[in-house]
Each structure stands twice: as C-alpha cells, then as structure tokens.
Amino acid sequence: MISNLFDAPLPRGLREQTAGMSWDAVLNTFATCSGPVQLGGWERAAAGEFKATLAIGDRVCTATASAVGPIGALTAMLYEQGVAFETLEFHQLHAGENTATFIRGGNGAAEEWALGWSVDSTQSALTAIIACANRLGV
C-alpha cells in the first residue's frame, strides 16, 4: 500500500484516485513528465530571482522571474510563455531521504493531480509542477 511509504496520509482527493494502485502505477500515472512542457536548467540567480531553461513544444527559451520562492517563480515563467497553470493544492510528504510533492493544479478548464519525487524538496516541487502542466494537456 503506497500510504505506508510516507510519514503522513496522502491528500484526500488523491487517496481516492490511487486506491488499489501500486507505487509503480502511481508514478507512471502522476509523475510522468513526458509532454510538451519540459524544465531544463534551474537556478536561483539571487535573492528572489530565478532563471530556468524551458522547452514548450519545439520552442526552447531561457526564462526569468522574481518571486518569493521557486514555485511562484516557475508558475510565473510558465504563464509568461503562454502556459496557464495555477497551484490549487500543495503537499510535501517524506519517504526516507526522498520528498514527494503532490500538486493539484488547474488551468481554468481542468484540474489534475501530479507528483514530483526527489531527494531535493525544491526539485520535487518543480517536477510536480511540470508533470501537472503536462497532465493538464498544455
């Protein structure tokens, strides 16, 4: 049971969607980053300043944003590139040395859950945002 992997219960809406699924099935469904939106390089340039390399379809660009944190920065960068994305729920759970980030995101027309998984909590969150944008069918 996947809930045994974490130090807290899965988010309520996701618990229902993952009931009876193996961890591999959850990863294949919610953590896939295949799709038109890809995150290449990521860096915090200075306090509140972020820089990323984004691929959206066949277009690659360097994006920058000023934000309180990386989630707001990536969301702003996506918006500037024409990708509508809003974080509706954000949960981070720990599993040993790893962090799982569960995001429910929307684009004004649909909502989806996605998962990011990494030893680095920021990378986990950024991966979850990209996975969610792709699940929304950008």
How many helices? The count is 4
Main β-sheet, in a few words? 3 strands, antiparallel
CATH architecture: 2-Layer Sandwich
Q: Give the mean pLDDT.
A: 92
What is the N-to-C order of secondary-structure elements (H for helix, E for strand)?
A: HHEEEHEEEH
Q: How many structurally independent domains?
A: 1
CATH class: Alpha Beta
Helix content: 25-40%
Straight-line N-to-C gap:
31 Å
Radius of gyration: 15 Å
| CATH fold annotation | Double Stranded RNA Binding Domain
Strand order of the largest sheet: 1-2-3
Keywords: Transferase
GO molecular function, one term: transferase activity
Explain this structure.
The chain has 138 residues and is of the alpha+beta class. It has a single domain, classed as Alpha-isopropylmalate synthase LeuA, regulatory domain (Double Stranded RNA Binding Domain). The chain is built from four helices and six strands; from the N terminus they run H-H-E-E-E-H-E-E-E-H. The strands form two sheets. The chain has a three-stranded antiparallel β-sheet. Helix 3 runs parallel beside helix 4. The model has no long low-confidence stretch (mean pLDDT 92). One of its GO terms (molecular function) is transferase activity. Keywords: Transferase.
Please supply descriptive tags for the structure shown above.
alpha+beta, 4 helices, 6 strands, Double Stranded RNA Binding Domain, 138 residues, three-stranded antiparallel beta sheet, globular, 30% helix
Summarize the structure.
The protein has 138 residues and is an alpha+beta fold. It has helices spanning 12-18, 23-30, 70-80, 121-135; strands at 37-46, 49-56, 59-66, 86-95, 98-106, 111-118.
